[in-house]
Amino acid sequence: MAHVHYLIGKGIKKHIALERIADAVAQSPETLKDWEKGLRKDDYFAFMWESAHLAGQLEGVIKSNSLNDLVEEYGAELFGPTSDFVVACAFIKEKDDELSLERLKADLRKYHDRSSAGKGAD
């Protein structure tokens, strides 16, 4: 869902962002909505999604300024010992690598294959 919120931060309507990300990870938009609904009440995920939204909104600013400058100019929301700008910076760095949609799709397939294999074991 972080990728969805990142695109929303870029100005893309939510239903379009859901369709794009769902297509990229071979899931339905309804599945993504269900995941979001199930995780929305968890403060950790809400904070991650808000940070991804911030990354989408301010990606150029984030890439061209130091973390201290960002916090000084915009303030920061904290979650435990970390701030939304720290998470937004990390998301921007990793969204095309460790957090890539291709990797997410492969991980989803791997976990789906594992759960499917276990069902016929009886």
Structural summary, described in words:
The chain is mainly alpha-helical and 122 residues long. It has one domain. The protein contains seven helices and two strands. It has a two-stranded antiparallel ribbon. Helix 1 crosses helix 4 (43-64) and helix 4 (43-64) packs across helix 6 (84-94). The chain starts with a helix and ends with a helix. The mean pLDDT is 90.
Q: Quick recap of the structure?
A:
By secondary structure, this protein is mainly alpha-helical. It has seven helices and two strands, in the order αααααββαα.
Compute the number of helices.
7
Helix content: over 70%
Q: Please write the string of helix (H) and strand (E) elements.
A: HHHHHEEHH
Roughly how many Å is the radius of gyration?
16 Å
Strand content: under 5%
* Total domain units: 1
Count the strands?
2
Using brief descriptors, characterize the structure shown.
about 120 residues, mainly alpha, two-stranded antiparallel ribbon
Strand and helix map with partners:
Elements: H1 2-9, H2 14-24, H3 29-39, H4 43-64, H5 67-74, E1 78-79, E2 82-83, H6 84-94, H7 101-119
Antiparallel strand pairs: 1-2
Helix pairs in contact: 1-2, 1-4, 2-3, 4-6
